[in-house]
Amino acid sequence: MHLEQLCRQHGLRLTEHRRIVLELLEAATDHPCARELHVRAARDHRIGIATVYRTLNRLAAVGLVTRHMFRDGPSGSMKARYERARAGQHHHLIDVATGQVVEVDDAQLTRLVEAAARDLGYRLVDYRLRLFGEKRERQSFLITPPLRAGLPSSAVPLRRRACQAPRRS
Predict the structure, then answer these.
(1) Quick one: pLDDT at residue 17?
(2) pLDDT of 101-139, one tens digit each?
(3) What is the pairing mode between strands 91-95 and 130-133?
(4) Helix axis angle, 34-42 relative to 49-61, nearest 10°?
(5) 148 or 101: whose pLDDT is higher?
């Protein structure tokens, strides 16, 4: 559907700033934050960071954009990240080392969640599933600090140093 029709359908005018932000999100292969969107937009357009924030807030309020709050890599701070709203359920895998967000479109996973709700006697209305992981080639054998990526310490496995003899004094 054309952006102008989409905005009109949601009771909005398609302003230049809304068009810029929507086009950037449509082209994005990641889940950018407002500052990242501003950097991308400012390459070709005169648009301030406050305007990007206001535009994202308005687009999210009417359902054209989805705002996700994800932990941001090693700092563990929460950061709003955005994507164009879309029909259907999809999941996110968050890399705990970098904060990178990867979309997971898996029909089998969706069926499993729906079956679990059904087995408990519920009709699933909505759900959010976030997976946290780290790339295998980046995994170390150091002890993982607790509460990394905002996970409870019980959810973060501890790893020992590989083949290291204890030090003698």
Answers:
(1) 92
(2) 777 777 788 888 889 999 999 988 877 777 888 888 755
(3) parallel
(4) 120
(5) 101
Asked, for residue 162, whether it belongs to a domain, the answer is: no
Q: Is 160 inside any structural domain?
A: no
Top pLDDT among 151 and 105 is at 105
Nearest Cα to 53, choosing from 69, 32, 33, 34? 34
Identify the domain containing residue 89 by its residue range. 3-153
Query: Smallest Cα–Cα separation from 148: which of 131, 132, 128, 136?
Result: 132
Bigger pLDDT: 40 vs 158: 40
**CATH code of residue 24:** 1.10.10.10
Q: Supply the Cα-derived Rg of the chain in whole angstroms.
A: 20
| Percentage of the chain exceeding pLDDT 70 | 77
- Domains held by the chain: number: 1
Report yes or no on 158 lying in a domain: no
